[in-house]
Design brief:
Length: 119
């Protein structure tokens, strides 16, 4: 399974990064799940999808909650299948962008804004 291999690699990378950082500070991590328009019909929140599909990585993040402050985002950069004629009718194209998070904002810069906020 590709996701199994992916979560093992991502967990190891995150662990390697955390080992290198000072342990007396909490670090923000924004997790973006792309092609959210294909997942959205499942009626899951980004965290729920992540937990179902990448449980090892989610468990590692939760175990390290003393070091990590995490926010999950579902991102659809184009709003659907590009060959969908109805999608092409939505203008301007940037209005097709969707982002789903805990706050339910629809601002593509939300993850960056959150990362730059003071803790």
């Amino acid at each position: 399974d590709v996701l199994t291999e992916t979560q093992v690699v991502l967990t190891q990378v995150l662990q390697d990064i955390l080992i290198q950082l000072p342990s007396d500070k909490k670090y923000k991590l924004a997790i973006l799940i792309s092609a959210w328009d294909t997942i959205e019909p499942l009626k899951l929140k980004p965290y729920e999808w992540h937990n179902q599909r990448l449980p090892l990585l989610t468990q590692f993040i939760e175990t390290n909650s003393d070091k990590l402050l995490v926010n999950w985002y579902g991102v659809s950069a184009q709003g659907g299948e590009i060959d969908n004629p109805k999608l092409k009718e939505i203008n301007p194209p940037e209005t097709r962008i969707k982002i789903t998070s805990v706050k339910n904002e629809n601002d593509i810069s939300a993850p960056i804004d959150w990362l730059l906020e003071d803790q």
